[in-house]
Amino acid sequence: MNKKVLYTILVLIGGFFIAVLISVNKQDITAEPYQHLVPSVRVIRVQAAAEHLIINSQGTVQPRNQSELIPEVTGRVVWMSAAMVNGGAFQKNEILVRIDEADYLTLLQRSEAVLKRSEVEYELSKNELERVVSLHKRQLASQQQLDDARRAAQVDEASLSEAQAGLEQAERDLSRTKLHAPFDGLVRNERVNVGQFVTRGESIGTIYATDYVEVRLPISVDQLGFLGLPVSTRGQITPKQRPPVTLIADFGDTRTLWEGQLVRLEAEFDERSRMVYGVVRLHLDDDGESPLLPVGLFVQAEIRGRRVDQVIRLPRSAMRDDNQVLVVDSDDRLHFRQVSLVRQEHDDILISKGLKGGELVSISPMQTVVDGMLVKPVID
Q1: Which one of 60, 193, 229, 297 has the fewest beta carbons within 10 angstroms of its own beta carbon?
Q2: What span, in angstroms and rounded, lies between the C-alpha atoms of 131 and 365?
Q3: Mean pLDDT score of the chain, rounded to an integer?
Q4: Comparing 338 with 8, which gets the higher pLDDT?
């Protein structure tokens, strides 16, 4: 017999016996009941509370009062205060710069001499007028002599007034050779040195007051309603209506806070950004508890707006389409609920109607949701 045929027959016989053994020794399969898989959802228990609406903004610290230091006389600088450097601190009425006063002392002496001469001449012309008036009454002087005497007295009186004005001008010019600080403050920059010749009206430095600083904050149109101010408010805000503002700056790993007030709203909206600017004023007191707020520092601002009562705060992940949230009832069933939205923030939403305190709201990002479906709530 051919070997190939023999091998084929043996393989078939072996397969037949294996099939018989499997069928004889098969295990019984027990049917198990079907169990529905219940999805787990993260939920939070909501509570209603009163909150102030916070408006976030940012801006740069600017001095409330900044002035150019400009001499009113011409001359050479002969002395400068040690505070007359960038960042130098000074007190009100402190002398910052002195200009050579020699020419103005000479002008003052000349003005005093002119005044004395004018006083003498006016005294003589006044006495002469009195004498001519007396003679005219006795008909011993003509009308022409009286008119001449009266005209001479008036000319000398005008010369005396001119001399007095000249003396006052000379005194003012002499006093202007010393440039005094108009307030307590700091030097922002200086542009003068000892020996330099300066002219009247030339700016030699910039100074600013340190009693207050201001921060100009952009506020969008939709955020104006959160301030709790009348819609027509422009310009100064009355002290009772001024919203408090917290200014925040980070110095490395240290966060520093300052408290100020929103004192005014500017009159116009910016055409490019469509925003109105509010101005925050901060009083800088040297109490040693908080550092001074440096001019030019970029800060974050939190404006505390109007108060809203009985609102519920939820993470934005809880919001579904069409202002709906998912509520888990006492039977662990999931339901859609329509809510009224007060405000959307960066990470949270505020709800005024549609929910009650103590209810469970789902915050899980579920793709497929059926109203009434069974879930396993996991309180976050």
Answers
A1: 193
A2: 112
A3: 87
A4: 338
